[in-house]
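Figure 6 in text form: structure in, sequence out.
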């Protein structure tokens, strides 16, 4: 499994617009059979912080999502004006969080 997690930061006056546009692409992820979950959540409006959390079955599924024109459009528009602290993680030992 691949996990995409972290925060992006945009101008606080535009954070609601960013969240709305990012969320408008979520249906593209959920129709992808390799998408386990995808979420964009306003974390701190005053800082313009948005929490991104995605889980993908594999890299191929993520690549298909990232290649869609709507997703590319988000990165094209917002990429130059956001601080992106989102990272990709490989999860190889999935288990209940209460287990050691």
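Output sequence:
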């Amino acid at each position: 499994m691949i996990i995409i997690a972290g925060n992006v930061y945009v101008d606080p006056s535009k954070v609601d617009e960013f969240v709305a546009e990012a969320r408008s692409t979520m249906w593209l992820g959920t129709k992808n059979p390799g998408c386990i979950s995808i979420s964009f959540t306003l974390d701190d409006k005053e800082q313009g912080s948005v929490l991104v959390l995605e889980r993908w079955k594999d890299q191929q599924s993520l690549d298909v999502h990232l290649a869609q024109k709507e997703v590319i459009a988000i990165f094209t528009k917002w990429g130059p004006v956001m601080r992106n602290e989102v990272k990709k993680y490989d999860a190889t030992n999935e288990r209940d969080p209460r287990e050691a």
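Caption detail: Residues 2-90 form a domain with the Alpha-Beta Plaits fold (CATH 3.30.70.100).
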